[in-house]
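Milestone M4 deliverable, item 7.
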Amino acid sequence: MKVSNALILLSASSTTAFQPVPVNRVSSRQFSPSTQLNVKPGETGSVVEKVKEMFKGKPAENEEFDRMVKKNFPGAISNKDLATRVVELLEEKGVSPANTLLCTSLCADELARVLEDEFVDIYGNNFNLGGLSGFPFAGNTGWGAMSAHVPDNGYCLLIHGPHVGITKDGVIGKVERSGIALVDNCCGSAIAASNYLKGITDGGASITPKLQQFSDFQQGAVQELILPFGKRLGRAENRMRELPYALYDSQEVLVTDIINTGKSSIKQGLAVLGGIQINTAPDTLDYFHPLRFDYYDSEGNLAENLLPYLRDKRYFNW
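Output delivered:
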């Protein structure tokens, strides 16, 4: 897949102002994340049970709705299962709320905060790389700053991806929102970019220089970044279902470039969880389709692909 020169500029921000902090120095300050789980440094015992307890206040699972979501998005799992599995897998690597900085690149939409807030409750306050549609607009400069904030001899968990809504009756690209009678678009930025692209591929519109308009820079960039996917979306059986996957593939190019550029700043380890957020009505669980779950070691090498274990319940004890 080709990405235009304008897009490369998004991820090529200077990192010289944010040199990585040496990891071998002695620090008298103990990392103390703000987390509802209240996991203290050196605490023994599994965090998984605390995560399960945390989700007891969430909406109950709806089997019929669960089947509908997974029929439309094969491979999706509920946020509850996602968080529990991620925590269990990362515990085996020594990654815990007491030694980890959470980093996210998710959409600006408040519905994207559901997943983010659930992981904030586990790992503490997050460093935000993302903007509209979930693209990592903070770029290499943001990554450099984030890396300097990871605790000494600690880890980073990066969660990234676009989002899409699904209504209770199965309409993709729409979602019920709290306090709003109208069933609304989700993701609005993605759908606007899709409509812009459709106008071009259908021959009724032309490419605009909106990327240069600072007052709407991010949306202009999203529209530029989706341009290579015109034929793919045009041929899709369900354009709204295919849209987040096209966006994810575009984002993956940028995220991978940012990681490869800044991997020398990894301290003890880095976990990268990428996929599609699936937002639902306020009284149902949200879902996530994991498409990537990689673990990088302290040298910045890809040490293990954890995705198969994340997808298969047979690997878990609960």
